[in-house]
Amino acid sequence: MACWLLKTESTSFSIDDLRRSPKATTCWDGVRNYQARNFMRQMKRGERVLFYHSGGDLPAVAGTAVVVRAAYPDSTAWDSNSDHPDPRSTPDAPVWDMVDIRLDAVFAEPITLTKLRKVSGLSNMELLRKGSRLSVQPVRDEEFAMMLKLADGQANDRPTARAKSKPTKKKVAAPASRGAKPSARPKKPAGRKSRRV
DNA sequence: GCCAACGTTGGC
DNA sequence: GCCAACGTTGGC
């Protein structure tokens, strides 16, 4: 089973937003890059995901998630009111895809980019490559394992999942009041809200 | 805010 | 098909 990394601007859609989503699940819409899309098409249900916060004050891996639905057409592409419409994509001939992910664990301490660069075993990570901008990228098994180890060392808020094949039913914090339907926005500026985790 | 690295666009 | 111009990403 492959592992992945999904990038999101924390000001746009953070791991907290995912935690507060219904069933701690969201669709990952808005990917508008062919290479990223092609990786997304390889994502299978049950595969694990590193949830990465880019931009903002603290670039870091914030936690993990699990793919709960493989790639299917991203309907926001033909919704002119969405944040990332693309007229080339239509219901009959979709161009862009999305997947659904569910929160697995929120790291007690996000693993910062700075820290990652110091871990020798991770030097080949796509994320650490200079100029890397891919918002969906593959992660090696060893890299994923190393990440969990780092998170453990920092006192995770839940024991790391053992098995790889069955994402266990996770217990996440209580759903928040907001009944908003958050649409995952891997990219895009959106509002200018500053934030602090 | 700066700027390097990248992807996309479009003229030729 | 080449490549310059442009827009975007994202760390710093």
Brief characterization of the structure:
Strands 2-5-4-3-1-6 form a six-stranded mixed β-sheet.
Task: Report on this structure.
- This protein has 197 residues and is of the alpha+beta class.
- The chain contains four helices and six strands, in the order E-H-E-H-E-E-E-H-E-H.
- The protein has a six-stranded mixed β-sheet with strand order 2-5-4-3-1-6.
- The protein is globular.
- It binds a DNA duplex (12 and 12 nucleotides) through loops.
The shape, in one word, is globular
| H and E order | EHEHEEEHEH
Radius of gyration from the CA trace? Answer: 16 Å
Round the mean pLDDT to the nearest integer and report it. 83
Category from helices, strands and their pairing: alpha+beta
The low-confidence runs, each spanning 5 or more residues with pLDDT under 50, are 159-197
Considering DSSP H and I runs of 4 or more, what fraction of the residues is helical?
Answer: 10-25%
Q: Order of strands in the sheet with the most strands?
A: 2-5-4-3-1-6
Main sheet record: 6 strands, mixed
Alpha-carbon distance between the two ends: 31 Å
Q: Count the DSSP helices.
A: 4
